[in-house]
Structures are given as structure tokens and as C-alpha cells.
Amino acid sequence: MKTNRKQSLCVTIDSYHDGGAEAYAIRLANALSDRYRVVFIELLPERTHKKGMKNLLNAAISSYQLFSFDRWIFRNRFYRVTFPIVKYIQLRWLFRKHDIRTVLSHSHYSDSCLTKWAPANTSIVSFFHGHYEMEMEKPDVIFSQIPSIIRRLNAVIYTSRNHLRTLSELGFPASRQLKLFYGYNGTRASQLTKYQPGSPLRLGVISRAIEGKGWETTIRLFSDLSREYPGRLELHMVGDGPDYERFKNLESESIRFYGFQVNPRPVLDTLHVGILLSTYTAESQPNTVIEYLFAGKPVLATNMGSIEDMITIDGKTAGNVIPVTDQGIDEVAFLQAVRSYLSEPGLIEQQSALALECTRHFDMAAITGTLMNYIEKNLNPEIKEALTEPSGH
After folding, report:
1. pTM of the complete model
2. pLDDT band at 360 (very low <50, low <70, confident <90, very high)
3. Claim to verify: residue 350 and residue 377 sit in the same structural domain
């Protein structure tokens, strides 16, 4: 007899950081919640006390955080031993309570916990966001727990060529890999971005202000360009973190710092060009770049992760890809790209049209459909009933 009860899906993160992995996990959970009974679990709530990202989660989703601790407690050896046991018990209770058979995991730590603690009949789908690339850089990591984690995973969703290399190095079967773009339900700009000669060219960065996201390099190169083109450029920096604290005192008529913005779109809409000079090892598909594209902004970004694929459509690029080599960012390429916008004002409008075309990559309905069909066919036959039932049950 058919039941109207939705199939359960679990989405896990380590904590509510304002990073791309966490933001995408929330977007994915929201998109799936119409058709599935989604359970969202934060495994390491003690890592951050900033829970602003949680407000983006659909209120209908059952959300939990595992038992957290104060850092001074963790220094006690007794608690270091007993603390994981408490988390294990709580996690297993949640799996029983919600009859969870499939988990969509969004961090290396989450993979580690689930492969050790989840029931044996649980399908674990790991979303690679660059965490393993960071882990693989650590000395002797190949002899650590990573190989045993990888062996237990039922499938890996990856986004970049770097991820593919990592999977190959770890011997993960190609038949259990699926490449997908990040889905996004943002509002596409209704008009193309245009630049009027004689007015300031407004450049912007929207990212975490951490090492590897290019804040220092962007500010330095902007200063060089400002001396070359006095009064013709503005730089708008949105984001919070150590580099925001370092550089916010440089604010002037031409450089503006906004700090963290829950909704950066109002600032983004005023820009002509979005910038991300990332050298971040864990870069995959930056949400920043997706936001630039949906706002119709040409993108000046490095070739880290899958950025080049993100801003390319039908062989044309919605901006400029700045190479990163062993010697660092190709700064000359960046400077030439900005100069080209000043000398060829129509280029902004042309690339704005391409940016909006690139948003087709991130169709959330198509991406979730591909994902869940893959799970149905390869991992969890019980998903099939949920896929064939009309939504809204």
C-alpha cells in the first residue's frame, strides 16, 4: 500500500561557517525539501558561534546540532575520550528517529564521522568542496584515515579537475563519481550591465576575507591602476575575516569596505565587474562567481577549481580567466583585463550578456533531478517511490 510519507534525506555539514560548502548544502537542502523529508545536521557547532547562515535554511526542515563543548572542557583528557561517544549516540538516535537511509555529506569531517558512525545500510554521498585537497597537502596524510573513509563512501559528487585527480590518486571507482555544478535559485538580472565612458569603473570583491581569496593582491593591483587612471576606478570589498580587519583602514573615496553582508546583492548590482583572485587550495565552485553571473557581471577570476568552466558558455568567456602558476597570479593579465574595460566600454555589456547565459549551468531543478536520479539508480532504490510521486505530499 502506498504511503504519503516522504522519503527521508539527511544533509550534513561540520558547522554554519559562511563558506561555499555550507551555503550550497543549505541551498540543496531547501531545494530537496519540497519532495523529501530533509534532516539537516550540524556536526561541529562549537567551531563557530555565528549562526547567521542557519537563517537561510527552510523553516520546514528538521535541523539539529550534535552536542557541543567549550574549548576548556576539551583540554581534559577524559572529555576528549568520552565526547565522541556522546556524538555517536546522538547521531545514531537521529538516524533511527528519522529512518535515514541516504546522507549528503558536505565536509571531510562529516565524511569521517559518517563512515565510522552511520549504520552499515546507510548510503553516504560525499560532495567534494576542496576539503580533501587541503587534507592531502598535510604531511603523511596518505597513511592517515582518508583511504578508509574513501572506501566506505557510496558516491562522490565532484566539481573540478582537481577533485578528479584526487579521486584518481585515492583509487575511487569512476563508476561512483558524478560531476555536477552547484545549483542556485538566485534572481537573474533583468538588464545588462553597461559602462558609460567617463564614469568610474566599479570593481568589486565579494568573498571571505581570508588568506587565499586574493584581497591583498586585489587591493595592491587596484592601487597601481588608480595611479595610472586617477579618478576612473572604484573598488568595493564585501566580506569579513582577518584580511578585512587588516585592510579596512585603507577605506577612501575609491576603496569601500562593507564587512559581512547577509545579502550582498544590493552592492553587487552597483558594480561593473566582479573579481576573485583566488589561490585557495580548496576552491571548487565559488558561490561568489555564481552570484556575479546572476547579477550579469563580467568576472575577472583565477583558474582555480572549476571557475573557468563556470564562466564559459558555448566556447565564450563571460570575463577573463587569470592564470595561476607556481610563480603565483599572472598580475599582468589582470592589469590588461581591467585596462581593456576602460579602453573598450562596450566589452562590459557583451560580457554581461554572456554572464547571464552562464547562469544556465546552475539550474537547481535540473541539478537536483540529476542527483536524485543517480541516487535512485545506483544507491538507494527506496528513493524511486519519492521520485515518481507528485510533489506536495
Report:
1. 0.86
2. very high
3. no
Task: Supply the range of the domain harboring residue 318.
Answer: 201-360
- Are β-strands 324-325 and 328-329 bridged in parallel, bridged antiparallel, or unpaired? antiparallel
Query: Are 170 and 283 found together in one domain?
Result: no
CATH of the domain at 278: 3.40.50.2000
Q: What is the total count of domains within the chain?
A: 2
Does the structure show a pLDDT above 90 at 54? no
Domain assignment present for residue 69? The answer is yes
Neighbours of 140 (CB within 10 A): 6
**Separation of CA 164 from chain center:** 17
Q: 19 and 158 in one domain? A: yes
Quote the cell numbers at residue 120: 552499515
Secondary-structure percent of the chain, ordered helix, strand, coil, rounded to 5: 45, 20, 35
Does 300 map to a domain? Answer: yes
d(CA 262, CA 260) in angstroms, rounded, equals 7
Query: Is residue 294 helix, strand or coil?
Result: helix
- Whether residue 244 sits in one domain with residue 106: no
CB 20 within 8 A of CB 284: yes
Residues 379 and 344 in one domain: no
Task: Convert the pLDDT of each residue in 236-293 to its tens digit.
Answer: 999 999 999 999 999 999 999 999 898 999 999 999 999 999 998 888 999 999 999 9
Dihedral angle over CA of 44, 380, 392, 188, nearest 10 = 60
Q: Determine which helix (DSSP H) or strand (DSSP E) holds 95, and give its type and residue range.
A: helix 77-98
Q: How confident is the model at residue 141 (pLDDT cuts 50, 70, 90)?
A: low
Is residue 87 scored above 50 in pLDDT? yes
Q: How confident is the model at residue 83 (pLDDT cuts 50, 70, 90)?
A: low
> 3-state DSSP call for residue 273?
strand
Under the banding of pLDDT at 50, 70 and 90, the label for residue 391 is: very low
- Pair (282, 210) in one structural domain: yes
Cα-Cα end-to-end distance for the chain: 15
- 296 plus 165 within the same structural domain: no
- Tell me, yes or no, whether 141 lies in a domain: yes
